[in-house]
Amino acid sequence: MQEIQFIPFSECAVLLSFGNTIDNAIHEKLMLAKKIIEENPFPGFIETVPAYNSLTVFYNPAETTKTAETISASVIQQLKQTIESAEHSSVQKITASTITIPVCYDEEYGIDLTELSEQLTLSAEEIVELHTKQVYKVFMIGFTPGFPYMGILNEKLFTKRKTQPRISVAPGSVAIAGNQTGIYPLSTPGGWNIIGRTPLKIFDQPKENPFLLKAGDTIQFTSITKKEYEAWLVR
């Protein structure tokens, strides 16, 4: 497995660092470490939180077993042993869910498509084709409840954030910025370039599990018409 840096993060957390780049292979390795730790919890273990290239492990210091000079050193020692043992015992694999996200790229919802066409010297149709052709990895959830940071875009779609962020972006708006794409689950301020909108609820608060997506999922966008989008909303 990728060489991991174990860093004391707080009195109740340790950060596992896998590097400093956004990369699908690195993310798969940290998700494998997450799986190993969750299947082999140490005393006091609470949860793991994945990000682009790091995994934070939270624990209750009152419930941990002190085997080294400090609690954090003890946790790091146990994490290293757990990961090394799992690696040597069998071949570990991650199975990811693939979710199809319908998106209406009509200009009514893809409100930045025209501006992006000029910036990227691509037609709106070419932008949509490139966006739906790729399969994306959900690297992490953040910013607002359920907001998925996904990548990696085709390099022809790499673009900067908007100079002037919007005060409010509609829920379901599908956007791109840098080498990533995302979906706004709620009406919030936002500076990414909006290229379409999905009728799916990315964050559905009344549900027991309100999150449609999670880190490690793979996503495929598919284009739908405005009529199909409107029909979806009244289902």
Query: Which descriptor suits the 3D outline?
Result: elongated
Total beta strands: 13
Helix-strand category: alpha+beta
User: Which sheet architecture does the biggest sheet show?
Assistant: 7 strands, mixed
Number of separate helices: 5
Strand content: 25-35%
Alpha carbon gap, first and last residue:
46 Å
Low-confidence stretches: none
The residue-averaged pLDDT reads: 93
Q: What portion of residues is helical? A: 25-40%
Q: Report the radius of gyration as a whole number of Å.
A: 20 Å
SSE pattern, N- to C-terminal:
EEHEEHEHHEEEEEEEEH
Strand order in the largest sheet: 5-13-6-7-10-9-12
Please characterize this protein's 3D structure.
- The protein is of the alpha+beta class and 235 residues long.
- The protein is 26% helix and 29% strand.
- It is built from 5 helices and 13 strands.
- The chain has helices spanning 24-39, 71-89, 113-120, 124-133, 226-233, and strands spanning 5-10, 13-17, 45-50, 54-59, 98-104, 135-141, 148-151, 166-169, 173-177, 180-183, 188-190, 193-197, 218-224.
- The chain has a 7-stranded mixed β-sheet. Strands 1-2-4-3 form a 4-stranded antiparallel β-sheet, with helices on one face.
- A hairpin with a 2-residue loop joins strand 1 (5-10) and strand 2.
- The chain is elongated and about 60 Å long.
Short description, anyone?
With 235 residues, the chain is α+β, with helices and mostly antiparallel strands. The protein has helices spanning 24-39, 71-89, 113-120, 124-133, 226-233; strands at 5-10, 13-17, 45-50, 54-59, 98-104, 135-141, 148-151, 166-169, 173-177, 180-183, 188-190, 193-197, 218-224.
